[in-house]
């Protein structure tokens, strides 16, 4: 056999190492390891790898690790449209970034020199444009954002690198789509920053947003659309694709909806202005994306969206209220996270977190999340008080609830929806006592109630039956004419026809000319259909409040406009908003 045909690999079981000389060369033969020892080595390596994976997932923060929950969506969370409605939201929600509770740690720092990123979720008509400008123009930083006059874009880089620390309209542009919502941003921000910076980096994300009172925001969007705005550049991205034209159909034909009336604006069932803040904060995958939110909207879908929006909002690092504007400069010792360089006073009062931004904040004091929500509720009450002051120029105001009185409120009867009612003439302490309209409201409100709002014909007849049974001549309701500042809106004009509303619920009444949708009397003191403003015609006060009169003018039991200074018995109705406010601000009371 030729030497080239000789095998050059030799496997020999020996007790010791030795060298073997063959014609084709020298071969070193070593002692083979027993198979049992080899198995132990392999098993040890596998166990070591498994331990490393478990330790990595346990000790590495979710917001930093590449395998964090933020970067992957569990199949159980990606509910289809058919599965989501009516089901409780999962206990584990995919978090977009650091939550409010996490930033409250004493050793927490937003580090501009590391990989922390602030993401601004900009909802239309919430004041986000002004707030976004302050973020890029008025922060006191070692390396301020570089804003060029000719462009709407600013470069917001870290102190020692050209990495971006702010993801917003004025720093990065609409990288994730025009007015990208929560669903779009959480799926897009990381990838966009990786592409911009040329590499994948483990980052911590701090989501922030601004909210606005829904009716004011809706009307502001209506006026903006009426002037020609369309937001056609929005992607409506969800679960890996953009919404189709069938899922998000336009409410108009042509280039824009310029000149649209309020009635036309509100009548479009798939108008994206409807419920915008909730939709933009929610995880739309829970309801089948835009197919579920617009074309197949149900009460169950609305409940899922609201629950998701509330959870996502609570998980954000910060949110502010457009109405909660700061009226004076920072008090001494306040956080300098939003110190102005060009304007003396920023237009938004920050609900301060105990967040210390490296080289930005110095000693900011904390407010708890509960305090922030209490301030939100206080804003709502202050807004109502402002309306009351507009209604009464004599210094009297609408009073807030008194928790102890709310606990002791008296309920005489409950209606079909289990809401409690109080009839003043049935209370021994008020028998024979009559109050003017505002005093009656304040008596009710101090007890987490308000004057009755007759929003349905069934409720109206139910209350009228008790008036007749108890032989009461008249009572106050919460109805009033809108004739103060802000009542010159086109939909409220003329006020004497379109300006009547239930003040307790801020619910507009049907026009007085639509006699089938209200219960105005066809008679009165001068024989004219109500409302007739009789007293003003006869030289007295204007009749701006709504009372129910029990056949007072031989006209049956119906609504009448009456001057608000007159005194009458009244009916109180439990008010959900006041009850929620007192329960939240007084968790130890059983209200």
List keywords for this structure.
2 domains; four-stranded parallel β-sheet; 15 helices; 19 strands; Mannose-Binding Protein A, Chain A; alpha+beta; elongated; disordered N terminus; five-stranded antiparallel β-sheet
Would you spell out the secondary-structure blueprint of this structure?
Elements: E1 18-22, E2 25-29, H1 35-59, E3 116-121, H2 128-137, E4 146-147, E5 154-155, E6 166-167, H3 182-197, E7 204-211, H4 214-226, E8 237-238, E9 241-242, H5 262-267, H6 276-281, H7 289-295, H8 299-314, E10 318-321, H9 369-391, H10 403-407, E11 413-414, E12 420-423, H11 437-445, E13 449-451, H12 457-469, E14 474-481, H13 495-498, E15 500-502, E16 507-508, H14 534-537, E17 545-550, E18 557-562, E19 571-574, H15 576-585
Parallel strand pairs: 3-6, 3-7, 7-10
Antiparallel strand pairs: 1-2, 4-5, 8-9, 11-12, 12-19, 13-19, 14-15, 14-17, 15-16, 17-18
In short:
With 591 residues, the protein is an alpha+beta fold. It has helices at residues 35-59, 128-137, 182-197, 214-226, 262-267, 276-281, 289-295, 299-314, 369-391, 403-407, 437-445, 457-469, 495-498, 534-537, 576-585; strands spanning 18-22, 25-29, 116-121, 146-147, 154-155, 166-167, 204-211, 237-238, 241-242, 318-321, 413-414, 420-423, 449-451, 474-481, 500-502, 507-508, 545-550, 557-562, 571-574. The strands form 6 sheets. The chain has a 5-stranded antiparallel beta sheet with strand order 16-15-14-17-18.
């Amino acid at each position: 056999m030729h030497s080239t045909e000789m095998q050059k690999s030799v496997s020999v079981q020996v007790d010791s190492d030795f060298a073997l000389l063959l014609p084709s060369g020298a071969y070193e033969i070593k002692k083979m390891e027993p198979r049992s020892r080899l198995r132990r080595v392999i098993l040890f390596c596998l166990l070591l790898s498994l331990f490393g994976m478990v330790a990595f997932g346990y000790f590495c923060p979710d917001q930093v690790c590449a395998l964090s929950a933020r970067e992957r969506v569990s199949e159980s969370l990606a509910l289809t449209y058919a599965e989501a409605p009516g089901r409780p939201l999962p206990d584990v929600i995919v978090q977009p970034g650091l939550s409010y509770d996490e930033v409250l740690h004493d050793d927490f720092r937003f580090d501009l020199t590391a990989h922390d990123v602030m993401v601004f979720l900009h909802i239309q008509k919430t004041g986000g444009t002004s707030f976004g400008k302050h973020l890029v123009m008025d922060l006191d930083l070692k390396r301020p954002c570089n804003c060029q006059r000719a462009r709407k874009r600013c470069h917001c880089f870290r102190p020692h690198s050209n990495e971006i620390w702010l993801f917003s309209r004025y720093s990065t542009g609409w990288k994730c789509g025009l007015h990208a919502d929560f669903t779009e941003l959480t799926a897009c921000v990381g990838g966009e920053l990786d592409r911009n910076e040329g590499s994948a980096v483990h980052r911590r994300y701090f989501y922030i947003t601004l909210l606005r009172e829904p009716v004011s925001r809706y009307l502001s969007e209506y006026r903006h659309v009426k002037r020609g705005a369309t937001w056609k550049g929005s992607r409506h991205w969800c679960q890996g694709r953009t919404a189709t034209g069938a899922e998000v159909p336009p409410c108009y034909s042509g280039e824009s909806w310029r000149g649209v009336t309020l009635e036309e604006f509100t009548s479009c069932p798939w108008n994206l202005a409807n419920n915008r803040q909730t939709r933009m904060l929610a995880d739309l995958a829970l309801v089948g994306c835009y197919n579920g939110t617009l074309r197949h909207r149900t009460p169950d879908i609305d409940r899922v969206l609201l629950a998701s929006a509330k959870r996502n909002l609570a998980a954000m690092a910060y949110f502010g209220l457009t109405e909660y504007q700061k009226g004076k400069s920072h008090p001494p010792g306040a956080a300098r996270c939003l110190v102005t360089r060009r304007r003396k006073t920023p237009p938004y009062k920050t609900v301060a977190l105990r967040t210390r931004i490296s080289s930005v904040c110095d000693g900011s004091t904390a407010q708890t999340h509960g305090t922030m929500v209490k301030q939100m509720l206080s804003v709502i009450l202050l807004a109502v008080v402002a309306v009351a002051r507009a209604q009464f120029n004599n210094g009297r105001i609408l009073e807030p609830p008194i928790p102890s009185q709310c606990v002791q409120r008296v309920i005489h009867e409950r209606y079909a929806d289990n809401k409690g009612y109080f009839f003043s003439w049935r209370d021994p302490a008020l028998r024979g006592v009559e109050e003017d309209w505002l005093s009656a409201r304040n008596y009710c409100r101090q007890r987490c109630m308000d004057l009755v709002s007759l929003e349905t014909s069934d409720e109206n007849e139910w209350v009228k039956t008790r008036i007749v049974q108890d032989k009461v001549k008249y009572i106050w309701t919460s109805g009033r004419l809108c004739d103060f500042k802000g009542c010159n809106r086109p939909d409220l004009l003329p006020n004497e026809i379109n300006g009547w509303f239930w003040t307790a619920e801020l619910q507009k009444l049907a026009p007085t000319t639509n006699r089938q949708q209200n219960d105005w009397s066809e008679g009165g003191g001068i024989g004219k259909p109500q409302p007739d403003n009789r007293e003003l015609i006869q030289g007295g006060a204007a009749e701006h409040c709504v009372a129910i009169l029990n056949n007072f003018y031989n006209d049956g039991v119906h609504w009448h406009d009456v001057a608000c200074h007159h005194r009458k018995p009244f009916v109180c109705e439990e008010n959900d908003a006041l009850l929620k406010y007192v329960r939240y601000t007084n968790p130890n009371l059983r209200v």
